[in-house]
Amino acid sequence: MKNKPLYLDNAATSFPKPEAIYGQMAEVLKEYGACPGRGSYGMARKAEAIIREVRQLLADLLAIEDANRIILTFNATDALNMAIKGVCQAGDHVVTTLMEHNSVRRPLNQLEADGRIRVTRVMATPEGWVDPQVIIHSMRPNTRLVVMAHASNVSGTLQDIDRVGEAVRNTQAVFLVDAAQTAGSYPLSVERSAIDLLAIPGHKGLMGPQGTGALYVGPRVKLTPWREGGTGVFSEDLLQPKQFPYYLEAGSPNTWGMALWAQSLRFIKDLSIKKVRQHKVEVMKTLLRCISEWNEVKLCGPKDPSQRVGVFSLSCGKRPPCELAAELDAEFDIAVRAGLHCAPDAHRCLGTFPQGTLRISPGYFTQLDEIAQFSQAMQTILKNNALNNEVLHQL
Ligand SMILES: Cc1ncc(COP(=O)(O)O)c(C=O)c1O
What we know:
This protein is α/β, with parallel strands linked by helices. The protein has helices at residues 19-31, 42-61, 76-87, 102-113, 132-137, 161-169, 255-271, 273-292, 321-332, 344-350, 368-394; strands spanning 6-7, 70-73, 92-97, 117-122, 143-149, 174-178, 197-201, 213-217, 297-300, 312-316, 334-335, 337-339, 357-360.
């Protein structure tokens, strides 16, 4: 009997999306055909209204006071580049961690290679946890930016951003949080965590389409735009208008994507992030129980669901993760990821470099019987592995 296809790669992008997204697709394409903010006729006003609604929904979900300080981007990478390159100036010092994704690591590495900034990278424990005290003690008088992920996309480890944020707030530096693995999945408040800059993707936990994301820019931040151009308003100004969001948004936006994103944001708002988290914790507990029964499998990151998000990295003895992922795909129609997951230094901390890990990331729509389906597939693979090893041993 053919297996039911199973998608467990929600850390990369969430799938499936809420039904409302699919249901609204044709209407969105027909109704949101004009450029927002570029005309006073009905269709342009409608496009402008949906973009404004996305900003407001995000502000409500992330406890942001001024929705105009939410800059719409194309993904989290776009938001992180805008933040890092807009804040850092020649001679600045930056504190970050070794758990970061390449979308933080590479822009910082390039600025450092160009001789513009100095970077201190704080090590994580083998569980992927970074001590906030070490981050705070790494700050210098010329530290302009502290940047870290809220949760690792390799080990799922949640970091104590509240403690870091509180300490950074008492300095000249600003605090940038990469919420790629938590926005929509875990309660977040820029107020509570003293976050100055928050980078989020629209297409992961916030369940929107690819090509959507946002950057929140708090009032303490001085940021130079890296994208300048038409805004549809203040057109007579010689330079980019200083008013938000126009200061950092130029050019025609992804209106169709934003209109679809509005559907998933409404879905999450009606449901509540608390409920999303509760379901994900249930799924995590079940998966953790299964993993604990597989002798030859080692889990990276915390075993306590309260200290993690639903991103599970596994090492399976000598069997390369890419082989396992290929077997899960070919034999069981199960989609998981293998390798370094764009975070090589994180693997150095976790002891899984250079081979990487097998990454399993359930989403909000993953059901407990699907975890059982995955578990059965893994048990079959592990049993066959053991049999093959035995035969090799006897030869
Ligand atoms: C921790 C982290 N940061 C940043 C990104 C980049 O996100 P995007 O694909 O939206 O650019 C990812 C993507 O997986 C991620 O996991």
